[in-house]
Every structure is written in C-alpha cells, then in structure tokens.
Design a protein that fits this description.
Blueprint: H1 6-27, E1 37-43, E2 50-51, E3 55-57, E4 66-73, E5 80-87, E6 90-91, E7 96-99, E8 105-107, E9 116-124, E10 132-139
Antiparallel strand pairs: 1-10, 2-9, 3-9, 4-8, 4-10, 5-6, 5-7, 5-9
C-alpha cells in the first residue's frame, strides 16, 4: 500500500489545480476587441495590390465592423488610398477610399469574411506609375 505524506498530497493537488486552470484558460473563447494592429506596406504602381498578414475574423455578423486608419502615406498628406478586406486574394468587403489623416474608419464586411482569416488589402485610388508606402493601424473586427 502506497502512503503519501500530507506534503506530497498538497503538491499533487496544487499541480492538478494548475493544470485544470490552465486548460480552462486555453480553451476559453477569445472575444473581439477594437485593437490597433500596426501595418506598413507598399502601394504598387497601376493599381497593384498590397496586403497585410492575415488575422482570424471570428464573427459571423457582417455588421461587426473592420477598421482602417491611414496614418501615413508616402504619396503625401491628405491623399487617398483604396482599402478592403481580403481573403486569399478575394475581396470580402466593399472597397473604400480612405483619406490620410482622417482617423479610424469603420466598415461592414461580406458574409464570406465570417470565421476566416482575412487581411487588409489596398491600392492607389489613381492609375499611376508611382509606388509609395502606407502605414497605420487596422483591425479585422472591432466588437
């Protein structure tokens, strides 16, 4: 017959408790928040597209807005760049012209942007031979 001392029983109980709490925290659902995810990428000539890395959009509510804030543009202050949500090189929201310096803009997505990985896509709103860098913050879902 194996006898455990009181100290060993407490250590085993403490270890089991840590494992239990950790497994609950790992499996607990994550809830969307209005995050500010930094982006910076090149806007290519002649409507060539630029993209961020993809993030998981867990919502099924198309009115759970995505956000873009065009904080800096190599094209200049107050210029416009066209943005959208993208899934595997497929547009999953309307296209929106966003003015540099206008602050955070919030938009609805298509149903095809539900429970999938999406990225922020962008292109020059003008058909131009110039390329430039844009940067700011975005979020795939805000509530």
């Amino acid at each position: 017959m194996l006898k455990l001392s009181f100290g060993k029983k407490m250590k085993n109980l403490a270890f089991a408790s840590v494992i239990g709490v950790t497994s609950i925290l790992i499996t607990a659902p994550a809830f969307a928040a209005n995050d500010n995810i930094f982006y910076s990428f090149e806007i290519k000539p002649y409507h060539g597209n630029g993209y961020t890395e993809e993030r998981y959009r867990q919502t099924t509510n198309v009115n759970n807005k995505w956000k873009v804030d065009l904080q800096a543009s190599g094209e200049g202050k107050g210029t416009i760049t066209t943005f959208w949500l993208d899934k595997n090189l497929t547009v999953v929201s309307n296209l929106y012209d966003v003015k540099q310096g206008s602050g955070a803009q919030y938009y609805s997505a298509y149903h095809t942007a539900s429970q999938v990985y999406v990225g922020l896509g962008a292109e020059n709103n003008n058909y131009s031979a110039n390329s430039y860098t844009v940067s700011g913050v975005w979020d795939e879902e805000t509530n």
